[in-house]
Amino acid sequence: MSAYSTLEKKFRRMNALTEASGVLGWDMSTVMPSGGAEARMEQLAVLSGVCHEILTGPDVGDLFDEALEAKGELNGWQLANLREMQRIWRHATALEGDFVEAKIKACKRCEMVWRSARPEGNFAAVLPTLKEVLNLTQQEARIKSEIFDCNIYDALLDHYEPGGKSARIDAIFDDFSSFFPDFLQEVLEKQRSRPTPVMPDGPFPVAVQEKLGREMVQAVGFDFNHGRLDVSLHPFCGGVPDDVRITTRYDETDFMISLMGVLHETGHAMYERNLPPDWRLQPVGAARGMTMHESQSLIIEMQASRSPEFISYMASKAQAAFGSDGAAWSVENMRGIYNQVQPDFIRVDADEVTYPAHVILRYRLEKELISGNMQVEDLPQAWGDGLESLLGIRPPNDRLGCLQDIHWYDGAWGYFPTYTLGAMAAAQLFEAAKKASPEIPEALTRGDFSPLMAWLNVNVHNWGSFLSTDELLTRVTGHPLDPQIFKKHLKARYLDS
Amino acid sequence: MSAYSTLEKKFRRMNALTEASGVLGWDMSTVMPSGGAEARMEQLAVLSGVCHEILTGPDVGDLFDEALEAKGELNGWQLANLREMQRIWRHATALEGDFVEAKIKACKRCEMVWRSARPEGNFAAVLPTLKEVLNLTQQEARIKSEIFDCNIYDALLDHYEPGGKSARIDAIFDDFSSFFPDFLQEVLEKQRSRPTPVMPDGPFPVAVQEKLGREMVQAVGFDFNHGRLDVSLHPFCGGVPDDVRITTRYDETDFMISLMGVLHETGHAMYERNLPPDWRLQPVGAARGMTMHESQSLIIEMQASRSPEFISYMASKAQAAFGSDGAAWSVENMRGIYNQVQPDFIRVDADEVTYPAHVILRYRLEKELISGNMQVEDLPQAWGDGLESLLGIRPPNDRLGCLQDIHWYDGAWGYFPTYTLGAMAAAQLFEAAKKASPEIPEALTRGDFSPLMAWLNVNVHNWGSFLSTDELLTRVTGHPLDPQIFKKHLKARYLDS
């Protein structure tokens, strides 16, 4: 067997175990009784240890050398697969086993403290263990930055957005922040000139919401022979490509939260489901980083499902489902609700316009923290200052401020920017999709996502990790990530219509 | 680290992966969409491969040698653990990897053919692949019988009932078969002399059945913080000791099938749940073979739940739950229904009296097949003859005959006798429990299982695999498995009351 084939076999094995962990993770968040947690943590820890052993076995380095020497025998997909394998391997071998274990433990400890500190807004309680997490994160960043020959932030970012560069993100986010304050004022002013949207009268029974959600995700193309929709505290998309599982939570006073949440997760799910089937369990068959992943959830949720075309369809379906009537169900009013802009403290509740401000704030703060330019003690003050300068509001406490997101506390440093990069990629892809398939908006008035999904399958999903994010965008839209298109989209939706 | 400690570490790791497989297996049978099957099979195959590698690593033999040399340093539990580790290791290393893989594939193929052959009663369709499975099973039995120095049937039996001997089973089953025909006639005659039991009027809504089932299993001691109750096509007890998951299926025309099924699985579940907590993930901490496991389901279902004391409690709870009334709910009538005896073709539908006949038939046939004294072609004829001589009925087709059970088709040869050995052990344990805690029957009239469960916890569950089945029975009841007690129980329940 060639060195390359041996590597394929190893990665297939490792990824089957990673898939097993994915299903166990879904189980833990949806159906596992609380008393099963300790045993589950051990199962997951052993699985992750076995994967690490497969990946860092003493023969793997030589296999890469041999495979690279014989790379003339490989086709394009195999070469791309080899490149992705190496990337994963470099991340895995960069750190000593003891260091990785210490970091996992510190993150778990910190996350646990955070879980009780957050509701109390008690940042002081989590400070010592957050410092420990940051310290280990900085060490990881320094080690990887030397090996990858990049700056320390990019060494962390690479884990979520392969090849991502903070210099580029700085430019994109600086551009957006200089555009944003005036734009927000214009949007709010325009909004004030319109009638205040009225919520339709509830309650909206969970069973009806679930039925409506199932209809909508099937309209997007979600196949219940290859997936599930369940309930969890924090909605997510999990499982594996051939059995992709999305979750939501229901609020009987407001059906839109769940509906839009389900459509968002369906975007993630369709990406996983439609990854190139011939490359299952191989690195090149995996999704292309978090920017592209977020672009797929946001193209379904923000670009398609909040478009005037789809809202008109959805409003009539929802009204019929809940057997309700009244002026609140008019398309104009529903658009007002779905596209309402309101600066708020909480990122996950933010609208499309103010969301990037939350992300930019976190990105700037985490860069300062990782570089050591800012101390963790100064975070609450810096958070308040930052939010005030971006959104004009200041959180009254840390629960609504720097304690709101789990990311830093469980070690996900370098993740935040992908949310907004994904929103920008979604706008760019949607524009290109409509150009290639002009019937997309009209189809959405009938709840028909198929022209959009067909285009996404061919142009995004089926590529897996064959191309880098920018190569993929360039191939499909003619140019790398272009934040101007997102701005154009925001202006069109919030000022011009 | 001592050799023994290294072995403990290896088994802990391996058993955590086995637990992961257990959860994935539960998922597959309860919630997995059909399209996830292929990916799941690969996940499970890789997990099983990794476990096999851990167990058969080149250093393991030496570790056993070293640990045995230093066994003076080990306490009783550690010595028992070492013995169990060796037993598992001997099974795992007896066969070459290629042979194991070939057998797994043949069994999977045969099971798939069986799934479509069974509804059609088409034994000819499954014959070629069943021959292949039997052939590989015979090879396995021969290889293991040499290594274990036992006869070939016992080499297979050992996998399900460690240390079990067919010579002993022959004697027990021969004794029962000479007792059985006259006894059955007496029971049927006595039954005819009584009013025919009348089923209470349904329908019995699934939601009410589920609520009632949950109340009943909680009465047994099942803790929903450490377990679940779900629906599956074939009821089972799965999951892991700290998150033990039982399943049932509901029939709206007959609530008793599900209720008794749930109580049966709860018996299995309580055994798993109460295994010695200090020995989690170690072989000595596991359940002591299928005879003891079945004894725990049957002591709850057959001994306790079908006792007149519990039936009187259950009848009033069920009547109240379904809001129904009428003479059918009288305790006399409910006892008549719960203890009705009726020779039938299907093992899983059989009553307590005729069930052993089904098991004895299968045991005798599989012994003949494994030894080569009988050819697979002759199975339908031999099955009909055997059932006729034991129960006086002959199946009209193979669907109701030799195609009904999955066991032989998926490779579980040597399993069947444990069902009836378990029923006998249950009778023996229940007698001892009542002697030690005379309040047990009276408590059951109040739906209170706690005196019985307290006794079982201390005397059975907490022992894990520390003792052999007969050692455990001797310790707790004064003598090894004694089939006379089961006969006494049957006479008391079906003739004397």
UniProtKB/TrEMBL annotation, chains A, B:
<comment type="function">
    <text>Broad specificity carboxypetidase that releases amino acids sequentially from the C-terminus, including neutral, aromatic, polar and basic residues.</text>
</comment>
<dbReference type="GO" id="GO:0004180">
    <property type="term" value="F:carboxypeptidase activity"/>
</dbReference>
<protein>
    <recommendedName>
        <fullName>Metal-dependent carboxypeptidase</fullName>
        <ecNumber>3.4.17.19</ecNumber>
    </recommendedName>
</protein>
<keyword id="KW-0645">Protease</keyword>
<keyword id="KW-0482">Metalloprotease</keyword>
<comment type="similarity">
    <text>Belongs to the peptidase M32 family.</text>
</comment>
<dbReference type="Pfam" id="PF02074">
    <property type="entry name" value="Peptidase_M32"/>
</dbReference>
<dbReference type="InterPro" id="IPR001333">
    <property type="entry name" value="Peptidase_M32_Taq"/>
</dbReference>
<keyword id="KW-0378">Hydrolase</keyword>
<keyword id="KW-0121">Carboxypeptidase</keyword>
<keyword id="KW-0479">Metal-binding</keyword>
